[in-house]
Amino acid sequence: MAKLVDLLRKRSSNSHHRKDDIASLLSNLLLNDDVRFRADLFLLLANASVRKLGQFDARHISNLAYAYALIEYVPRFDDGRDLFDHIAMNFIEMRLEFNAQDVSNMVWAFATVDKRHDALFKAMGDQVVAKDHLRGFRPQALSNIVWAYSTAGVSHSDLFDKVGNHIVRLDHLRAFKPQELSNTAWAYATAEVSHRELFEKMANQIAQLNNLGDFKIQELSNTVWAYATAGVNHPRLFEKIADHIAGLDELKLLRDFETQHISNIVWAYATAQVSQQKLFQQVANAATQCKDDFNSQDVASMLWSYATMGIVDKQLFSSFVPIAANLIDNYKNQELANIAWAFAVANIDSPALFHDRFTDRCLDNLGFSEKSLSQLHQWHLWQTKEKSRTNRIDALVKVNGKTIGVEVDGPSHFIGRSKTPLARTILKRRQVPSIDGIKLVSVPYWEWDKLGNEQAKKQEYLRELLEL
Question: What is the Cα–Cα distance from 413 to 380, expressed in whole angstroms?
Fold first, then answer.
């Protein structure tokens, strides 16, 4: 019946149907005028079910939980408990043995309605771990199970190891749908469970596909977020997803994505230090058109990502000034610091954002992390142009009476192995001349490495650099 309610809800958005057909009659029976399910009917059924829970087998009890989770309804009873409390207690008392689909339905249901029941989750996980093999578990069941544990915030490392090892041992992952791959990656990253072989296998499966047309934007977003969060570097996966998103029609992108998805995508690439200019340009164009839909977290995350990658899109930053200013009271400490630091890197003067209210919010909040304080310090230097003695320069030389700073920019000063400087490198190159008042020259590692061990060539290189 719950599945029927779900289908009728979706159908109700289409007004082109007869009022006397079967679907319309069922809608009148099961749904209210506002297309919500009839709570009185489902409460009556829940009461009747609770009285007979002792007669339910594993499939029946898991289907009951699944049905009420599907319509997102948790009936409460006069004893102060709800339907899911009774289901959990009944399961613990009867020690029912669940098959693959029953386990998946049960834990998915509890996670979906936000009912964390540690004893039930532990018992369910122990049942899965105790099995000789997981060949009876379909991809959807496997992904739903680990998704449920991560969503509910319940730790069960043995379960995650069992599922991960099973997937790794499979000959291929062609049976896994995009949502199942995405949810599995998301679950392991969210639960902070390290399983590099699993991530490698799933990434290889996605990267070898002819195209990613079957993936929704949310699934792509969750996937790259998971790999960045887990710290798993897979260049082919990131390139494949970036090329796909960059090649999407802009109208399709705007229609299918939510602001959280788009901010998570650029956050993932920035965190993983993967430079994809076309992707960032596509996202900037889309974000600018729907900027009013962004919340405080999405704004801070997106602007931080562009600054971290050294991509100074002045149109993007300028267009988000009023949006960021309107959300000033909603930012958490790290978000305040991220926004301040991002605008300092972009070097876009924004008095409409950085006014007394912004400063007051920073002063009112306690508990800034060391990273946040460092970001705010950089922003303060940018705002006030005060002299900084925190910039450590590799060498200072006197040339014709003028002091010149020489900075040896090694690989750690750039994004990945690219020639795109990190945000902190950009800030330093700008602040040393403007704040400390000295010229700064850079020695990029790839130019220095080409000179090898020939001292004469190195001396000539430095002479030209310092204009001697």
Answer: 22
CB 228 within 8 A of CB 271: yes
Q: Given a cut of 80, is residue 9 above it in pLDDT? A: no
Sign of CA dihedral 79, 80, 82, 86: negative
Residue linked to tokens 């010229």: 439
- The SS3 assignment for 442 reads strand
175 exposed, middle or buried (CB, 10 Å; 0-12, 13-18, 19+)? exposed
Contact predicate 258/225, CB 8 Å: no
Cα dist. 302→259, 342, 445 in Å? 10, 9, 30
> Cα–Cα distance between 259 and 384 in angstroms, integer?
33
Which pLDDT tens digit goes with each residue over 170-226? 999 999 999 999 999 999 999 999 999 999 999 999 999 999 999 999 999 999 999
Cβ contact 368:375 at 8 Å: no
Amino acid at 355: H
Which is nearest to 461 in space by CA: 450, 401, 393?
A: 450
Query: Which tokens in the block code for residue 107?
Result: 């834990």
CA–CA dist 349, 182 (Å, integer) = 39
The whole-angstrom separation of Cα 227 and Cα 223 is 6
Measured over the CA atoms of residue 22, residue 24, residue 25 and residue 27, the dihedral's sign is: positive
Phi, psi of 81 (to 5 degrees): -100, 165
E strand or H helix at 403: strand 402-409
* Residue type for position 201: K
Tokens representing 173? 């992952």
Q: Please give the single-letter amino acid code of residue 354.
A: F
Residue pLDDT, tens place only, 318-359: 999 999 999 999 999 999 999 999 998 888 888 899 888 888
**What torsion do the CA atoms of 271, 274, 277, 279 make, to the nearest 10 degrees?**
-70
d(CA 37, CA 72): 10
pLDDT tens readout for residues 405-453: 778 777 777 776 677 777 667 767 776 776 667 787 788 877 878 878 7
Q: Distance between CA 392 and CA 378 in Å, rounded?
A: 14
